[in-house]
Amino acid sequence: MRPRLRATQRGGATRDDGTAIELLTSKAVRLSVPDACLRPFRRGDEDDLVEAANDREIWKNVRDAFPHPYTRADAERWVAYNETLAPIVNFAIDCEGRAVGGAGLVIGGDVHRRTAEIGYWIGRSWWGRGLATAAVCALTELAFGELQLVRVFAGVFAHNTASVRVLEKAGFEREGLMRGWAFKDGAHVDALLYARVSLGRG
Ligand SMILES: CC(C)(COP(=O)(O)OP(=O)(O)OC[C@H]1O[C@@H](n2cnc3c(N)ncnc32)[C@H](O)[C@@H]1OP(=O)(O)O)[C@@H](O)C(=O)NCCC(=O)NCCS
Fold first, then answer.
1. Centroid of ligand 1 to alpha carbon of 128 (angstroms)
2. Which of 6, 69, 179, 194 could disulfide-link to 167, CB 3.0 to 4.6 Å?
3. Residue 202 domain-assigned?
4. What would the pLDDT profile of 61-109 be if each residue is shown by its tens digit?
C-alpha cells in the first residue's frame, strides 16, 4: 500500500485537506548537542557515510536493507535516492560538519497514514554523546509538527539496550513485546514496541 505522504519526486506532498506540506529541505534542525543538526543527505556525504556505516555492530541492530559491508556505491545510491523524495523523511545526523549517522521516518499508508516508524543509527566513534537521543527527539517533533502525524513508533530488538535507552530518554513508552518479530543474522529475534503518541495537539 502506498504511504500517504511518500512521493518519488521532489515537488511536494499535500495533507488530507489539500494544503501543501513544506519541504524540510533547506532547513537544518539544530540538535541539543553542540555542533549537531539534522539535515538532508547531500552529495559530499559519501565518504563520511562509509566511514560511519560500514560496521557490523550497526548492521546487526537494523534492517537487512541497510547494507553490510557498506560501500561507497551504497552511499552514492542512498544520497541519490534521498534527493528524489518529498517530503524529506531521511536525515543525516551531522556533527561538526560531518554526516555521522542517520535518522528517518517510514510513514504508514491507508489508515496508518498519520503514523510513522522511526529508525536511526550513529557511527561508532560518535556513540555516547547523546546524538541519537537528540535526533529522535527532533525528528519526532517534526513528525508531530510539520508532518501532522500523531504516532511515532519503533520496534527495537530486545537485546539492544542502548537503543531502548535512547527511546526512553526521548520520551517513548514501551507498549509491548513482539515475539519472533524479525529474522536477523540467522536468528529469530524478539523486539520491544515503543511509541510516542500526540493525540489532541489540535
Ligand atoms: C543505539 C545507538 C543509535 C545509540 O546512539 P548514541 O548516540 O550513542 O545514543 P545516546 O548517546 O543518545 O544514548 C545512548 C544511551 O545508551 C546507553 N548505553 C549505551 N550502551 C549501553 C548498553 N550496552 N547497555 C545499556 N545502556 C547503554 C548510554 O549510556 C546512553 O544512556 P545515558 O545517556 O543514560 O548514559 C547506537 O549505538 C547505534 O547506532 N547502534 C546501532 C544501530 C541501532 O541500534 N539503531 C537503532 C535501531 S532500533
1. 6
2. 194
3. no
4. 999 999 999 999 999 999 999 998 888 999 999 999 999 999 999 999 9
The contacts of residue 161 (CB under 8 Å, 6+ apart) are: none
Residues 6+ apart with CB under 8 A from 8: 84, 85
Domain assignment present for residue 72? The answer is yes
Does residue 58 have its Cβ closer than 6 Å to ligand 1? Answer: yes
The residue whose CB lies within 8 Å of the most ligand 1 atoms, and thus the one to mutate among 93, 121, 139, 140, is 121
| CATH assignment of the domain containing 122 | 3.40.630.30
Q: Print burial letters for 163-172: b (CB count within 10 Å at least 16), e (below 16).
A: bbebbeebeb
Atom 8 of ligand 1 has which residue's CA nearest to it? 127
Number of domains making up the chain: 1
Expressed as residue numbers, the domain containing 140 is: 13-197
Q: Is 133 in the pocket of ligand 1 (CB under 6 A)?
A: yes
What does the pLDDT look like over 113-152, one tens digit per residue?
Answer: 999 999 999 999 999 999 999 999 999 999 999 899 999 9
Phi then psi dihedrals of residue 162, to 5 deg = -65, -40
* CB of 172 shorter than 6 A to ligand 1: no
Residue 8 in contact with ligand 1 by CB distance below 6 A: no
Choose among 85, 112, 92: nearest CA to 7. Answer: 85
Tell me the average pLDDT across 160-180. 98
- % of the chain residues with pLDDT over 90: 81
State whether the beta carbon of 137 lies less than 6 angstroms from ligand 1.
no
